[in-house]
Amino acid sequence: MYWCHLFRGHLSKKVSSTLQLPYPSILRGLGVSFYFIFLHNSLMNILQKIFKDHFEEMIYLQHPRDSVIENVQKMIHCGDPSFGGAMYICPSCGNFKYVPFRCHSRFCPTCGNMYSIDRTTSMSFKIIHVQHRHCVFTIARELRPLFLKDRSLLNCLFSAVNSVISRMFHKDNKSELFTPGFICVLHTFGRDLKWNPHIHCLVSEGGVGNSLRWRHKKHFNYRLLRDSFQTALLNELHSRIGDSFKKLKASVYADHQNGFYVRAMPNKCNPSQVIKYIGRYLGRPVIATSRIDSYDGDLVTFHYNRHEDEKLVTETIPVLDFMARLTQHIPEKHFKMIRYYGIYARHRISDRYLRRAISKEKHKILLSFNRWRDSILHSFGYDPLKCPACGTTMLFLELYFNHKPVPLHELYEKVMRKHRCRSPASSFLP
Questions:
Q1: Span 96-124, average pLDDT
Q2: How many Cβ atoms from other residues are within 10 Å of residue 371's Cβ?
Q3: Kind of pairing, strands 96-100 and 34-36?
Q4: How far is CA 368 from CA 278, 285, 372, 399, in A?
């Protein structure tokens, strides 16, 4: 959760040294009343500290992928004011507020949650007002290492699910070719943070045929889903890997004669609850900081509820092993973890008809969620641009972007030199 820590007119020596700030006497000498905002639960959350402490060691021993290095570096510096941000001013009382940039990495627990919120609202914008079903497609344990070794094979999971669901609906009426709307989200992690690729799929309980008539579908053939998904996925892998996959393919068929596990039971996923429901599974970070119980420099302790029986499990592992578990789930750059199919796919003629199923009021609400100020306000109950002193909406003043750290006090000094002689109420109004 975001927490706001406000410092007015003074900072402790500890905070000052951390942020490359001068001592409070210098700040008071500027003759300015200021506010400095962090959207952190602390100056540096526990995950940032873990990776900052052992980043070089991770590079040297684990030889991570380029996408891992990029996302970890972003996460470490997320919210660091020395890397840039925006300066705001209150037109009533003249107070300043500096809001640092975020990293926007899905690996970051803070930005990952915001990404999940944004994607959830974007998804809900597409969803039509019908009942949906949440399905989960899992794979055999023996196949998991293949996807870890060659991440391009993860595309096979999406194509297999697409073919299976499309086939199930087409079987209802082959001449009509009924097409549902479904959205697939790839998860590569289980609750224990180990490698476990699977697909969460939100499927409309009905579809549109060639006549553009909507047909409801309440019965999902569970056995068909299991067998079809197994066959489709193994055939996809065989075509990609080649004949070297034949032996493993035969053993998987022998060990899983009832197909792969697919959960497609009816659930409370009606239109009024769908936004909240899918938000739990959409683009969320691998682990929330609240699940990390302790870190002593060498060991990390975290907890989770075991999927089989919901029993609370606490696990303590070496810090490098913990980092490896997390970073293995960082996708390759530009790899799409969320994909839309059927009537929810892009560039379809039917897309213009879907918009009619969503009320104008809902359009306005959903669009407002995607503005950063409104996102924070609706999600965390805090208005980041409200002056803490007088409650007036603060105005944008200047933007700072640097590729190298710059002391924060230099930014305040620059603003004061530029604006200290002006009347606060008249100088900053547009």
A1: 77
A2: 11
A3: parallel
A4: 19, 23, 9, 23
